[in-house]
Amino acid sequence: MKTQVSEEIKQRCEELKISDDAMVELMDLFLRELNKGLSKKDNPTADVKCFITYIKDLPNGEERGKFLALDLGGTNFRVLIVHLKGDKDFEMESKIYAVPQDLMVGGAEQLFDHIADCLANFMKDQNVYDERLSLGFTFSFPLQQLGLTKGLLVKWTKGFNVAGVTGEDVVKLLKDAIKRRGDIQIDICAILNDTTGTLMSCAWKNHNCRIGLIVGTGSNACYVEKIENIEMYEGLETNQMIINTEWGALGDNGSLEFIRTSYDRAIDEQSINRGKQIYEKMISGMYMGELVRLILLRFTKDGLLFNGMDSELLRKSQEFQTNYVSQIESDEIGNYKNCMEVIHKLGLSANFKDCANVRYICECVSTRSAHLVSAGIACLINKMNEQSVTIGVDGSVYRYHPKYHDLMVKRIRQFVRPEISFDLMLSEDGSGRGAALVAAVACREEGRISG
Ligand SMILES: Nc1ncnc2c1ncn2[C@@H]1O[C@H](COP(=O)(O)OP(=O)(O)OP(=O)(O)O)[C@@H](O)[C@H]1O
């Protein structure tokens, strides 16, 4: 039997719904912002910066050799070695290293020495310590790229705030750290964003892939744009280029106020990058659990949940993890096993009605996230206007939330021109292989073979 969600809670969650009208408004807004980002005149005032990646060629399947990749950009730092053997055949080994909290907010040298240290350690593990290898560096923070191997950090996001990196060339910082060690030989062939890595990784398997999307710690998307639409590009002749939209910053100028709630404002207030990444803060894993917690706390204080009794843990910031949202929504309808478990973990006592309400709140927050992402993707698909397009997707929210994919497909379908077909493809191997592929494509162009 399905326990009913209380009417008052339903009513108070209405503000979390993205109506059809709001979807259209959001898509129009995003399109305007994209065009501003691409335009020379308007770029300086655009929220969505549309960074040029200098990646113009997608993999053609002929890339071969051994490549290293680094993936820094959120919860985990990974080092990978990818052996591309051709015909979609490859071997990959990777290791996850922690980035200690003090390094996330420390100094540049400490962070990059740590990265170089992990790299050397990994090369020893993989018996390639003495080899000279090419490396693709996935660095998933807003970068102003000046070339394939030169990128200046525009600003830190997602909990990082390392001094002395903003405005600096991140490739040079890594090169310097490698040089300081003096024991490993690495050619850094490319720096890229995880969206680009995801797009490249998926494009290797599916040549229709033209959009890369991340819904993980943060949220971002990239897409293949025609060169005539990229006024900002002044480099060598080419037909197309991957544009890293950095869409997380949509709304930084106040344009999303029509859908923001008091909970979103509270999230922003307590963040280390206030006023920044407004769209991302309504979507991504770093904030989703906390949004649910703030709503639960508010409703409990107002006597709508848990008999008005909160708990120390519910009052504590970050205690409601985003993966709880997935767990709670994975319960079968009418069954609250996971939900009860989470509620008990938080030191609360609940009846079935509370469980139904908690689940409903989770659904509202995760559905809103999926709909916001869908507006962005539908806008990109319509803008590209190709007959058929695949979107490569990565990130734990998309990967593990039980309904995120279906919610997106349904909502995108509603707003994409009917004659266009699309599909969402989960990136199985993460953006790391994409970084190796970018390095490989760069080597292919230069006629070099690594490993
Ligand atoms: N089962 C889950 N359901 C929903 N969200 C989850 C789940 N597991 C982890 N997350 C959230 O996903 C985020 C981590 O995403 P991911 O594993 O893709 O890492 P990431 O690579 O650091 O992210 P990004 O690509 O944005 O830098 C965290 O915010 C975490 O709370």
What report would you give on this structure?
This protein is α/β, with parallel strands linked by helices and 451 residues long. It has a domain at 54-204 and 430-446: Nucleotidyltransferase, domain 5 (2-Layer Sandwich). The protein is built from 16 helices and 13 strands. It has helices spanning 7-12, 20-38, 101-104, 108-125, 170-181, 194-205, 262-269, 278-283, 285-301, 312-315, 322-330, 337-345, 352-384, 396-400, 404-415, 430-446, and strands at 51-52, 65-72, 77-86, 89-97, 132-139, 143-147, 150-153, 185-192, 209-215, 219-226, 240-244, 388-394, 421-426. The strands form 3 sheets. Strands 1-11-10-9-12-13 form a 6-stranded mixed sheet, with helices on both faces. A 5-stranded mixed sheet has the order 4-3-2-5-8. It has a two-stranded antiparallel ribbon with strand order 6-7. The chain is globular, with a radius of gyration of 22 Å.
